DNA sequence: CTCGGGCTTAAAGAGATATTAAAAACTCTG
DNA sequence: CAGAGTTTTTAATATCTCTTTAAGCCCGAG
């Protein structure tokens, strides 16, 4: 079981990571919202432990982005004492539970187990389109049952497209998905990734919409 | 039959070890949770005698870690009188039985025999992948029926990989598996162990996933 | 037909991983 | 307790993969 911890306090973060590993989980730790975004694109986690009070971009916006693209991964908010409105906003935005800092670790793990258990009914998404399948929990992509290896950037590009089948995804959006919103790249990297994806997965999967971007999905009538 | 005793009280520990040897068992004795973790990775024991009230990290977390990775080794908790909640948590976390300190040795051995007998039905895992076999109870690895000798660190690295076939295991996770969570090593030790494993077991077993870690492929169906 | 966006390619630059070999730390044995 | 043999760590180098760049070609829209 893979968890994601989004927490800027290094001490607390380390402690939570240790605890998680002792509990038999594996856990990734990121310190800010942009990193969290990228991690969530890369993997399907069993649950996310999300500090709301992040420096810069708030944890809430990460949560909103997740729910905006129908990512059902359970989210447990970590909030500071007294921030009642944060909690309300969080639950409103689709968090599954919250715990107030400072907390007992035992309680934290109990809540994590609880949100995971409650989410068992939900399906962990395995994107598929035609003979292409993406298992996000293993980070494995296959075509006609044969495993295909993708680089990190190729994988992120593909996921960003598969998340909205039938919708045109702009180059800018893809750039965000690959590099985070602080996109500092020039040149035609996205075009190159698209080209690699087509080479590895076949020309039919990704259609280009001239002047707009790319689509995965049924040809529009 | 091999037992593991996790107990910080030196006197009691010695006494239990003596008793076990007289009873025809062999027994390893460790004094804290991290040591217990490592011992459990190294060997498959017939049973674990686990003191819950350890200094530092609780015995419960050891138990949870075991069950978290589906280690079916029977666990007999040693608890102090009156710690009812500990006992409940322990059984909850997957302990097989408990005994209250101070105890009669006769009763202890009766309970040990009992949990071992009850566990006979369970399967002691023998990992295998292709022509590679790992017998955890004997700590023996063989390739195509020929025994291969691995050093302690190589063995731990291999087990950490085999525990999640088909999943990418990060370098950090391997580091934890080899050194415990207080990983204080620099340099590329993990890379070296992987290299040795490939040399001894063949290049096909462990695949590297660039930027993520290593995978042992799913056993061919 | 022309223009601009899109595609393809190859190669340089980064970054990650593999491979060594030797030093340091253990272990075992006499 | 010393010395031989092993394991573990370090570190430097080599190799490989991924990423980015840039230049030229192709194609669609107007």
From TrEMBL, chains A, B:
It comes from Variovorax beijingensis. PROSITE patterns: OMPR_PHOB (PS51755), RESPONSE_REGULATORY (PS50110). It comes from the Bacteria. The lineage of its organism: Bacteria, Pseudomonadati, Pseudomonadota, Betaproteobacteria, Burkholderiales. Residues 2-116 form the Response regulatory domain. The modification 4-aspartylphosphate is found at residue 51. Residues 124-218 bind DNA. Signal peptide: none annotated. Keywords: Cytoplasm, DNA-binding, Phosphoprotein, Transcription, Transcription regulation, Two-component regulatory system. This is Response regulator transcription factor.
